[in-house]
From TrEMBL, chain A:
Cell compartments where the protein resides: Cytoplasm
Example GO molecular function: L-aspartate:2-oxoglutarate aminotransferase activity
Transmembrane stretches, start-end: none
Listed GO biological process terms: aspartate biosynthetic process; cellular response to insulin stimulus; fatty acid homeostasis; gluconeogenesis; glycerol biosynthetic process; L-aspartate catabolic process; L-glutamate catabolic process to aspartate; malate-aspartate shuttle
Domain Aminotransferase class I/classII large: 84-457
InterPro entries reported in the protein's UniProt record: Aminotransferase_I/II_large, Asp_trans, NHTrfase_class1_PyrdxlP-BS, PyrdxlP-dep_Trfase, PyrdxlP-dep_Trfase_major, PyrdxlP-dep_Trfase_small
Gene that encodes it: GOT1
UniProt-listed Pfam families: Aminotran_1_2 (PF00155)
Other notes: In eukaryotes there are cytoplasmic, mitochondrial and chloroplastic isozymes.
Family designation: Belongs to the class-I pyridoxal-phosphate-dependent aminotransferase family.
The protein's name: Aspartate aminotransferase
Domain of life: Eukaryota
EC numbers, comma separated: 2.6.1.1
From TrEMBL, chain B:
Official protein name in the record: aspartate transaminase
Gene source species: Sarcophilus harrisii (Tasmanian devil)
Parts forming coiled coils: none
Lineage: Eukaryota, Metazoa, Chordata, Craniata, Vertebrata
InterPro entries with a match to the protein in the record: Aminotransferase_I/II_large (IPR004839), Asp_trans (IPR000796), PyrdxlP-dep_Trfase (IPR015424), PyrdxlP-dep_Trfase_major (IPR015421), PyrdxlP-dep_Trfase_small (IPR015422)
The protein's enzyme class: transferase
Superkingdom of origin: Eukaryota
The keyword Transferase appears for this protein: yes
Length: 465, 451
């Protein structure tokens, strides 16, 4: 006992307010005395003194993961000294000057928030900022949604669209189609945003499949394949659907095609999980872009919808997302949200506030709301313009093939239909950077580089098969 | 289309918010006090915010270089650098040798989550995690979710009413080889040098993996550079370890969720490998971290004038806590409250064990509207000049009504002997209170007195 007692240096309380106490709380502890803090040799010297060989890492079998293709592309672009270089691989909006755009309305709200001295910086609730959750959900579902009227929807603030998908995936793995059933098939479109595979996989799902979506020959939607895959999917499978502006193909089903999809999904008991990352961004109209989600709700589906405000608010950096839950009745939604609260506790405990405050302030104030819609339209219009310009240039050049898909596709991305070899040619010979899949970001085009890009594509298509 | 909800079988999860806080909010008594907040409070009952944060926020808004594009998956490089330097010191050998790095996370919680996931996938060991009782509620579910089994330990000596870092020896001795040891708030660790030496040898021998958790650097001593010297020691000793760093409390900027998972390893090569794997977890968890909070903190830490100002605000905060402890002890003495209250000033940081029995806690909650968590751990920043008299008088009353509280004394030797070392349990220190399912300090002593 005497020994244990001696572990504790006597700490007279009178000293506790004294300056010396404040300055040296750890008196018994001198690194330099051990000769270890004296620079790079220290550790080895100490290890030798202790009779230990320099150990290898206990994690020596951990391999270095490959960086994501997009990042490598961006890095290559940055290092390219050629003045003609064009980056069509970025995942964000760019102005006609090739710069990121800070929405004027976001700027305005930010200044307001910075001036607000009464802002409390305590943790947000686990499920997020209530005003944000309500307003964001209303944008997607529409004010007169039956789900809202019947109080059978709820939502969780998340870290961007990825975070929203993750909460939903974690919940479905735990509580959907049995308990902890990781083998429920999850269907993602072929092709899709790579995070869809990654997020569901990371949440534990083991059976991730693809459904046919893009018809490369037609350069459009493969409706027949899609419907067939839905017919053949096991009942209660989860289907990840893009609410609008399909990433990466830019090709959405028409309302008539959605009707067919709905009838199969109903009959086959398939669960729709929408990813809505581009609302307002594709057509310039919020309601039009939310049509598919609202149609499913009206048809009586229970569904999840992962919303991201990165693109339509230009707030990529503050990670604003929302996961909407629509259920059969209020009771179901309450229970689902109670479980999601537990999931959030483990994931990030509670979400960051700034982005949610900006979005909530904008959406709840009619004037700011109108201004935001105008800002969104500005972005959408620029993209539409670039689509028309590129198509007309390619057609004027007489580039082999059809190019109507460029204007038929919507949203930020377009699947050009260029082959991998043609893409390689563009990257290596023309300093035009795009993903091997042939996906281009329309925002990478500007009035200044349109001609160069169009003639380069023409060259690639005519020279490389 | 099923007519029944697909969510029909989803059970209602118990509320995650504490019942104590709910009760407090519904209480209409004008004297009500809540002593369980998880953040620093100021006298005006609002969360503390370093004044320099407000000014920096306002300054940053006019920064034309602010980019709104995504941060990389691992976050803001500049932030990771300054935060890591803050943790281990600018001249740390690990920085010189390029074998320390970080991943910018969503608060300390996110850092623990990423680290735990990595350990699950890559750490070969018995999947046993030791953590302090007080951490269990917050971080326990993360490790449990990933399939680790939890074992609790505590530094709080229920007999002597002191926090005893020496208990770490018992924990490490009883732990299976290659277990994971979560060290919470190591800022207040005090051990003689020889003991440190012995401890680190023991840790290495048993290949215990350390996961430090630093939630409030600077709030222990008032000087962020003085807290956490143990980390510098571990680095110097060549340990490989993780450290979750949360900067929410130290800056008062809780709602921006700024955290950092620091990885210390043996070489730059293994650092790059580990970080590349952590990046993948982050990519599918939240994409990339939010920017604002980390920008504010990076700005403050990299600007000498702002940094000075921040340290000053932190120091006055801590002096305030120390003063509160001192005052409380003095007031209890003047009231002639039975028992010794040395332990009020003998503990460090924001939180302290009050050292009263569960019955007394219960009396304070139900009769006096003073809301104290059952484990008796209170947040001293919730005590201010307006409520201190009421609190001390109520504690006095509780003790006079219920009977004397526990007195500092030696633990009964027989019980120590009775512990079975083969059980590989938490060590004898916690076993009694644990078996009763109660964590209140002083409980065992109280029961012992009754005997």
């Amino acid at each position: 006992m005497a020994e244990r007692e001696s572990l504790l240096p006597t700490r007279p309380s009178v000293q506790r307010l004294g300056r010396d106490r404040l300055l040296s709380p750890v008196k018994d502890f001198r690194i330099d005395a051990l000769g270890a803090g004296a620079g790079p040799g220290g550790v080895r010297a100490l290890a030798a003194a202790l009779g230990l060989a320099m150990p290898s890492s206990i994690f020596s079998d951990v391999p270095q993961a490959q960086p994501v293709v997009v990042f490598k592309l961006t890095a290559d672009f940055r290092e390219d000294p050629d003045p003609r270089k064009v980056n069509l691989g970025v995942g964000a909006y760019r102005t006609d000057e090739g710069q990121p755009w800070v929405l004027p309305v976001v700027r305005k709200v930010e200044l307001q928030l910075a001036k607000n001295d009464s802002l409390n910086h305590e943790y947000l609730p686990i499920l997020g900022l209530p005003e944000f959750r309500t307003n964001a959900s209303h944008i997607a579902l529409g004010e007169d949604s039956p789900a809202i009227k019947e109080k059978r929807m709820g939502s969780v603030q998340a870290l961007g669209g990825t975070g929203a998908l993750r909460i939903g995936a974690e919940f479905l793995r735990r509580w959907y189609n049995g308990t902890n059933n990781a083998s429920t098939p999850v269907y993602v479109s072929a092709p899709t945003w790579e995070n869809h595979n990654g997020v569901f996989g990371a949440a534990g799902f083991v059976d991730i499949r693809t459904y046919r979506y893009w018809d490369a020959a037609k350069r459009g939607l493969d409706l027949k394949g899609l419907l067939q895959d839905m017919e053949n999917a096991p009942e209660f499978s989860i289907f990840v659907l893009h609410a609008c502006a399909h990433n990466p193909t830019g090709t959405d089903p028409t309302p008539e095609q959605w009707e067919k999809i709905v009838s199969v999904m109903k009959r086959r008991f398939l669960f729709p999980f929408f990813d809505s990352a581009y609302q307002g961004f594709s057509s310039g109209d919020l309601d039009k872009d939310a049509w598919a989600v609202r149609y499913f709700v009206n048809e009586g589906f229970e569904l999840f919808c992962a919303q991201s405000f990165s693109k339509n608010f230009g707030l990529y950096n503050e990670r604003v997302g929302n996961l909407i839950v629509v259920g059969k009745d209020a009771d179901n939604v309450v229970r689902v949200l109670s479980q999601m609260e537990k999931i959030v506790r483990v994931l990030w405990s509670n979400p960051p506030a700034q982005g949610a405050r900006i979005v909530a302030t904008t959406l709840s104030n009619p004037e700011l709301f109108t201004e935001w819609k105008e800002n969104v339209k500005t972005m959408a219009d620029r993209i539409l313009l670039m689509r028309t310009e590129l198509r007309s240039r390619l057609e004027a050049l007489g580039t082999p093939g059809t190019w109507n898909h460029i204007t038929e596709q919507i949203g930020m991305f377009s699947f050009t239909g260029l082959t991998t070899k043609q893409v390689e040619y563009l990257v290596n010979e023309k300093h035009i950077y795009l993903l091997p899949s042939g996906r281009i970001n329309m925002c990478g085009l500007t009035t200044k580089n349109l001609d160069y890009v169009a003639t380069s594509i023409h060259e690639a298509v005519t020279k490389v098969q | 289309m099923p007519t029944l909800s697909v969510f029909l079988d989803v059970p209602l999860a118990p509320k995650t918010t504490s019942k104590l806080l709910d009760d407090f909010q519904q209480d209409e008594d004008p004297n009500k006090v809540y002593l369980g907040y998880g953040v620093c409070m100021t006298g005006e009952k609002i969360p503390w915010l370093s004044p320099v944060v407000t000014r920096t926020l306002r300054r940053l808004i006019h920064d034309p270089s602010f980019s709104y594009t995504y941060l990389p998956e691992h976050g803001l490089e500049a932030f990771i650098r300054v935060a890591t330097e803050l943790l281990v010191g600018r001249h740390s050998p690990a920085i010189a040798e390029n074998r320390i790095g970080g991943v910018h996370t969503i608060g300390g919680n996110g850092a623990i989550l990423l680290g735990a996931k990595f350990l699950k996938d890559w750490h070969r060991g018995p999947r046993v995690v030791y953590m302090q009782q007080t951490q269990r509620e917050q971080y326990g579910p993360i490790f449990q979710e990933l399939g680790f089994s939890l074992r609790e330990y505590t530094f709080w000596d229920t007999f002597r009413l002191v926090s005893d870092t020496g208990k770490l020896f018992d924990v490490v001795e009883h732990a299976p080889d290659r277990s994971i040891l979560v060290l919470y708030n190591s800022g207040s660790f005090i051990l003689p040098r020889k003991r440190w030496f012995k401890l680190s040898k023991l840790l290495k021998k048993k290949q215990i993996f350390l996961f430090c958790d630093i939630p409030d650097q600077g709030l222990v001593s008032g000087d962020p550079d003085m807290d956490n010297k143990i980390l510098r020691y571990l680095v110097a000793q060549g340990f490989e370890f993780f450290c979750s760093q949360s900067l929410s409390n130290s800056f008062g900027l809780h709602d921006e969720r700024v955290g950092n998972l620091v990885v210390v390893t043996v070489s730059n090569k293994s650092l790059l490998c580990i970080r590349s794997q952590l990046d993948i977890y982050a990519r599918y968890m939240w994409g990339s971290p939010p920017a604002l909070g980390s920008r504010v903190i990076t700005t403050i830490l990299s600007n000498p004038a702002l940094r000075m100002e921040w340290k000053k605000s932190l120091r006055s905060m801590v002096e305030n806590i120390m003063l509160t402890r001192e005052k409380m002890k003095e007031k209890l003495r003047l009231l002639c409250t039975p028992g010794s209250w040395e332990h009020l000033t003998g503990q460090d940081g924001m939180y302290s064990f009050l050292g009263i029995t569960v019955e007394q806690v219960d009396y304070l909650v139900t009769k006096k509207h003073i809301y104290i968590p059952m484990n008796g751990l209170i947040n001293f920043t919730c005590i201010n000049y307006q409520n201190i008299d009421y609190i001390t008088q109520s504690i006095n009353e509780a003790i006079l009504t219920i009977g004397p509280g526990p007195q500092p004394k030696d633990p009964p030797k027989t019980e120590v002997m009775a512990d079975d070392p083969e059980s590989k349990n938490l060590g004898h220190m916690t076993s009694e209170s644990k078996s009763l399912g109660l964590k209140a300090p002083g409980l065992s002593a109280y029961l012992h007195n009754k005997k």
